[in-house]
Amino acid sequence: MGLISELSDSLGAVGLPAAWDRACTGRDVSLPPTSANYLDAVRSTTTRFVGAAEGLKLVNVNAEKVQPYVDSLDVAKFDKYVKHVNGWSRSLPLIFDSVAQNLNLVAILDLLQIGSGFRRELHDAVNRGASDTINFGCISLHISQTPLDARGLQALTLGDISRHFGIPLLGEERPMSKGNTAVMISEASLLRPLAEVVLGILHDTGRRLEQAGFASLADFIIKMCAEKPTSAHLVQKLVSAFPSLRDAACIGGQPVYLFKKAQLIAYDICQKFGKTDAKFDFPDIGNMTLFADNVVPAVMQHHGLIEPNADIKTKIANGSELTLEETTAMRAASIVAAQLVVDFANSPNSGFEAGAIPVSQATLDNFWRYEGKDPAIRSIPRLVCKNTVYF
User: Fold this and answer.
1) 129: how many CB neighbours lie within 10 A of its CB?
2) Whole-angstrom Cα Rg for the chain
3) Where does the sequence pass through the membrane (predicted)?
4) Bridge partner residues of 174 (DSSP)
5) Are 336 and 46 in contact (CB under 8 A)?
6) Which residue stretches of the chain have pLDDT < 70?
7) What is the C-alpha to C-alpha distance for residues 61 and 333, in angstroms, rounded to an integer?
8) How many angstroms separate the CA atoms of 213 and 243, rounded?
9) CA dihedral sign, ordered 183, 174, 115, 95
10) Is the pTM of this model over 0.90?
11) How far apart are alpha carbons 349 and 360 in whole angstroms?
12) What pLDDT is attached to residue 12?
């Protein structure tokens, strides 16, 4: 079982969908040393990137906006929104045979929190956004009693993904030849690459688990947390083991670590199971960073905490797809700016009085994520990046 990190590098993408292979852009980015704290590595590399000249050409962090933002923060609203988001994984309308089965589904839900770049196409085709599509599909898999262990993940087909997640594989029909409607053909759906990425994530995760001797993703997580019950340890093990969680980019020859989904898995497991099982009660939960995706940077841009350059701003406003470098810059800047907010809110001279929930990057993420659903903010354009398995 200790060989899973080696297997991650040696298995490659043989037999996996090409869409997953293309979207797994961080697979070959070198990771921090095993002795490093991976949460601190996210902070240090994003700070370096945003502070470098190359980062500044893409997006600025407006430090002067931090104090007025904290001064205006509605504490009651903050507590309400964070509590709501924290409760999502505890409110699934499902019955589980065991805690391990429940934990497995929570982890797979977070593993698959992708598809934000297809938000418009999903709403047009199935009237659901990316997160709702993933939640819908995972609930469907559970209700249908589809095995979600290591072997079960590998047995899924593209048709299974289409059926359970409601992602169409074919577009509209058209005549094969002009003027002849006797024979109709269908083009591939614009959403087919998303279905292929979902399948690739599940297949790759399943085979790596099986090769390393783990029965399921839950089995892996339980054993890693038994080794050392901290979020930093679990994030390191998840990122090292599974390319679909290696949320990193190499920009200007330097790695930038974001690790969104791995942190989200650790956070949700702590929230859901930490009160009843000590190995999931991570003492360093407050050291997590934002789960930076397409929503939170847009909300932070709205508040003036980060400001992209003119090209990125135009792309976001038009709903155009951003490059890997541009999305990395926006996501990294959101982490850097969030840390400034956390530091000021928790400084003894700020005058800010927190409510029931402390201000950390993770709780700010929850707040901004749900704030993004407010009518006044919901219409704000979000980041679009289709070629990614990370958000």
Assistant:
1) 16
2) 21
3) none
4) 185
5) yes
6) 1-14, 53-55, 88-90, 172-186
7) 6
8) 18
9) negative
10) yes
11) 17
12) 47
